[in-house]
Amino acid sequence: MSQIQMIQDMDRQGNTISAIAEATGHDRKTVRKILDKTDFNQEMPTKKGCPGGLLEPYIQQIDELIDEQKKLNRKQRFTATRMWEFLFVDCCHVELEHAYHTIRRYMKAKHQQELRSNHEKGALKLVWHPGEAQCDFGEAHFLIEGKLEKLYFLVLSFPFSNRVFCQLFKGETAECVCEGLLAIFNYIGGIPVLIIFDNATGVGRRIGDKVRQCQMFARFQLHHRFQVRFCNPQSGNEKGNVEAAVKYVRSHLFVPTVCIPAGGIVRFNAYPLMEKSGNLRMEVEHYQKGELVKNLFETDRKALLPLPHTPFVVVRYDTFTTDSYGMVKTNSATHSYLLGPRYANRTILCGFGAWDIKFYTPEGGFIHEYPRQFGGSTTESVDMLISLDALKYKPNAWMNSQVREAMEPGAFRNYMDHADANARKRGLYLLNETAQEFGFNVAALAMDNTWHGERENSAADVKTYARRLVSFPIGMSSNTTGVSLEPFNALMAQGGNR
């Protein structure tokens, strides 16, 4: 601008174009062009349209390739580098040898245009009424018995008051959702009138205008009489409150990594997690309304539906057929549970809960209960009492049995390895009888510590030792006074020499 101003000033002073050009160092044509310009309005800084010129003949081909790739996985689509290689190398368009940056700019512009067209409707600001809630899952890692394990935490948020509640689970199934919601309902003393769910939760799914709910959650909803709405695809604003709550809970309650104490996740959910999550924002002002969350939640509470008189039992029943080992395989044979040979090749009724899985005969007789396994990794749940009960009828299978593998090397295991069939059978009967009364681990330890060489133990000796282990475990000191008993060792030695 200063150069143009100087040229105009020199022109007004009567200098010729040649003199101005010589003084400014510009060409005469440039000086004349500047003096002839009369419009100095700023042009609108709009972006250029699709590149033409060299790329123009190939734009249709590029568009067709991009549209065709949309049917595939997102990670299997054309990048700008691969598009340039395909056109230049594979299709032999040698004129595009130096057109990589042009292709990249075009593909970027096309991608941004598609994003704008997908979001051209924008997000609608929603109004949330008292008693309405949103539900979603989050993920976090926890220390459980010294091992790092990924768990899923269910969050129920109330957008009107911005209060949140949280519960931990090992999966995201409908049983976990119902168990978590049921605990929260009982804690707050009521039921939300409406709950918004993500389209990817285990309770149901929206496909177009149709919503398909799983039977378990449908019964839960009918029992508690609340309304359900599933988010539209790509409409995160419809449950934005709970998505923000998931991040808030994770950063405020689970950072640094939380160690689940003795008693397990169920006890941790009841206390302190329920209380801690519910109190997270109680003394905080609402981000828009300027009132305390605890005061706004009282309005939420007044709008809640009453709890039903009959409590809901979170369980889903299904039937399976065991194999020749008496093993039940669930979740597309991912998780297996041993019921024993006596239930081999039979139809079994299974009751799936959020924490456990119970097995019944077709007539309803209880068989066994296992902790429920989750995830895509193959698991095999075996109760040593079931294996031991079956092994006592087949003593010759001892060497390759799961019972032997579960026992530490010791006197009893060594005796059983070298015993004949009858001696093994007696030993297994005694081990089974003790295990049924005191548990497998206690029985195995009692058998090992009371066994001496080739002499068989009596049931009285083994059970007495087992009873002592249960009431007073090894490692506990009976000297509660703190007085050293070391001086008495000399007296004991003297007495032994007489």
UniProtKB/TrEMBL annotation:
<feature type="domain" description="Integrase catalytic">
    <location>
        <begin position="126"/>
        <end position="301"/>
    </location>
</feature>
<dbReference type="InterPro" id="IPR036397">
    <property type="entry name" value="RNaseH_sf"/>
</dbReference>
<dbReference type="InterPro" id="IPR001584">
    <property type="entry name" value="Integrase_cat-core"/>
</dbReference>
<dbReference type="GO" id="GO:0015074">
    <property type="term" value="P:DNA integration"/>
</dbReference>
<protein>
    <submittedName>
        <fullName>Transposase</fullName>
    </submittedName>
</protein>
<dbReference type="GO" id="GO:0003676">
    <property type="term" value="F:nucleic acid binding"/>
</dbReference>
<dbReference type="InterPro" id="IPR012337">
    <property type="entry name" value="RNaseH-like_sf"/>
</dbReference>
